[in-house]
Task: inverse folding
């Protein structure tokens, strides 16, 4: 099933999610649906809070569906090592239409569990490193907006409030 993506302003996006404890067929189905929902929305990452579920679970595919081997499920991810810096434009499916420059590490190693509960570590560079940070942030109630300068952040928030008032958010 395709989930509707929750937008900025929904409380679930700004709270700390619960860790995944049950690795069953239901979780597998949920991750498959998250990939599908992400591809429809043309994103490279999607975290469970973005479909209204406060779970420490995210999916990433920086190939946007082109390479099946690029599909990554992160359950209970922790960032365990970072190196270097990159400053690039970043956006979020929950903040559609707005982007901003965010400083992230160039290399990121994440430790997580896969859909069966098996632990693994993975090192990412560039966009993948950025996705590890962005999605792990989501699970801790942090949006990319919090990494922007205060002027840029307030400008975006003001525009969103305006859109919400007009019923366009
Ligand atoms: Ni996001």
Result:
């Amino acid at each position: 099933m395709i989930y509707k993506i929750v937008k900025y302003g929904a409380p679930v996006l700004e709270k700390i999610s619960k860790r995944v404890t049950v690795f069953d067929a239901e979780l597998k189905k949920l991750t498959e649906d998250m990939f599908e929902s992400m591809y429809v929305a043309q994103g490279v990452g999607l975290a469970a809070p973005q479909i209204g579920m406060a779970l420490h679970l995210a999916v990433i595919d920086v190939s946007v569906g082109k390479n099946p081997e690029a599909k990554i499920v992160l359950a209970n991810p922790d960032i365990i090592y970072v190196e270097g810096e990159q400053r690039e434009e970043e956006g979020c499916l929950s903040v559609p239409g707005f982007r901003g420059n965010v400083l992230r590490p160039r290399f990121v190693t994440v430790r997580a569990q896969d859909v069966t509960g098996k632990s693994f570590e993975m090192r990412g560079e560039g966009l993948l490193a950025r996705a590890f940070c962005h999605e792990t942030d989501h699970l801790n109630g942090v949006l990319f907006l919090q990494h922007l300068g205060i002027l840029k952040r307030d400008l975006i928030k003001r525009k969103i409030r305006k859109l919400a008032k007009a019923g366009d958010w």
Notes: The chain has one domain: 11-165.
